[in-house]
From TrEMBL:
Membrane in keyword set: yes
Domain Choline/carnitine acyltransferase: 137-716
Topological type in the membrane: Multi-pass membrane protein
Organism: Vespula vulgaris
InterPro entries listed in its UniProt record: Carn_acyl_trans, CAT-like_dom_sf, Cho/carn_acyl_trans, Cho/carn_acyl_trans_2, CPT_N
Protein name as it appears in the record: carnitine O-palmitoyltransferase
EC numbers on record: 2.3.1.21
Amino acid sequence: MAEAHSAVAFSFSITHEGWDVNFDREVLNLVWLSGVRSWKKRFFRFMNNLKSGVYPASLGSLWLTIGIVTAIHFAGYKVPYDLVGKVTPYLSGSSILAHLAAAADLQRLDIWLIFVKLLSGWRKPMLYSFQGSLPRLPLPTVEDTMKRYLRSVRPLLDNENYTRMERLAKEFQNGIGVKLQRYLILKSWWSTNYVSDWWEEYVYLRGRSPLVINSNFYGIDAILMHPTTNQAARAASTIHFCLQYRRLIERQQLEPILLQGIIPLCSWQYERLFNTTRLPGIETDKIVHYQDSKHIVVHHRGRYFKVLIYYKNRILLPCEIEIQIQQILDDKSESAESEEKLAALTAGERKPWAEVRNEYFAKGINKASLDIIEKSAFIVVLDDFPYEYDPEHPEKLDNYGQILLHGKGYDRWFDKSFTLCIGSNGRIGFNAEHSWADAPVMGSLWEYVIASTMETGYKEDGHNKGTPEFIPPIPTRLQWDLSSECIECINRSNEVVQKLINDIELRIYVHNEYGKGFMKASAMSPDAYIQMALQLAYYRDAGKFNLTYEASMTRLFREGRTETVRPCTIESAAWVKAMEDKNATLDNKYRLLLAAGQQHQKSCQDAMCGKGIDRHLFCLYVVSKYLEVDSPFLKEVLSEPWRLSTSQTPHGQTSKLDLKKYPDCISAGGGFGPVADDGYGVSYIIAGEDVIFFHISSKRSSLVTDAARFARQIEKAFADMKKLLLERKKIQQHKNGST
């Protein structure tokens, strides 16, 4: 994921003035503040639950209720309205609860799942219904993390370097690691999640490099459908569906995601999807979320317009918003000097943007206009060129992705939680800031928008259905007073951004020879299959193995975000070498492939269940910096580059998207920039049974990477894997026939 870029470059220093300073107290203060933030969130969640209903309560409160009722019953106390008598039958020997209680030998997870299913059967759960019942992210032991880490780097190191790393790991485990772990144990007890707040601050908000390409990610339309070519109509309906989605979040009516219909995922990240912006700071940025916003900001030809989307106590209809969008498109006024490139400030380096904001946007008309942008629900960009897709011309899809990843560098407001991008031909996409949440949250919104588009449709002439009930408010043009010094700063930032854009290469490869259907039939999970293909492709491309990053979610736990899976394993390396060995037997290649796939699945399960490697090491490193303790082991581990950074884009997160009914609704996914200067960024989405989209990025300045070349290597790897599996199947069928 794009987060890997910041994770690699993560570094900060803390100094204390004076002589009488207790460094340990500084860490305790850090842990205290983390816990305070956590308890504040719990308080506001509790207040919200009182307003929205308290279903379902946590298991702790359920057992407490059972205990109180049972105690009152046997004590013989009289309770008004015979409440105990009404509750007791549900606790009798014939009840479900009694059967559950009798099954005391079941594992805690099994009991928890049964109760979640039992409770969810009573009433349709709300968005935050399961937050109170979600467990905390467990803290691994240092010993376990060292074992996993050493195993993960074995295929990357020769014997001499591996022995050296073993020594460093042992010294850390038996030395400073013991002290650092104590502080993490304390933090894991006190705060809701021992990783998330530090991850957000130190990996994202303290990063000083440009957001464009390095951090922000993008998402593409469902390219197999094109419901209307009318730009104003598509923009209006997309805006309306986004606002409907926001209302579902605000009312907690959005359905929470349940794995296999039972296991709930944390819904915390949805809170900041709308009305959110990232404000630049000299040393660190901050995320600001506004409780409400009744307007959006639309950008067109270098001009910014405030558009009211609430009127007479309701969301404007698509046909009403279309009138507003068309008014902006018909506006012939020109942008003011440097207004067109104003957003380059949000794309460039963070410290210069913070200085410019404090100097030139802290008062007057500039502050008023900037406030309107930052307090908007989201940003909409109306581009004056089409977003194109043509299977016969793959370069058009590549250009589509580049438009969404970075645009012109100055026509997206990269600080906002997300920016909707609308092509002149009615195709859409988005660019999203990464610090406030991870890609699956935007993916959920995107699925809702696409599904709603197909359900609602358009008139035959391409306009939105329905009749306006009134004339909507006219969009208001934002005004700026940009001095020559401010304009110079804008131009400098734009120069930085243009260098980044000119250096990026993006290739979107559509693999349609086969998909997850064939993979499952081969007794492998699709993700493991794809990751093995990427390992084979990378080895052929680079001639060696390298540290590989795959983002995995930890939303099984409260306020969970991501963990790193390391797909380059001992097993995957053995299989790749066998594939390149002309003397290796077919059966050996097949056996090694299955073993590699099984190990990858185990690594994914460990990461999802809080048994990963990298987040634990990251938090240990944070504590070491606050204690001002140097660790050669942590320093080396945290500086290792991820030359192959990968992420799977999930789909099917909402029941609203029925792919059987609308098979063309699947999005082409999205992507991000490369993490290392000499590496690849690869995002992929399994689009149905027979199609996989790969978004591959690299830097043109690198002498060792080439996105188009790597796409060809992926294609060849998939072909070779299919050939291997089919030949093995053919031999097995022949043996069975002979038998």
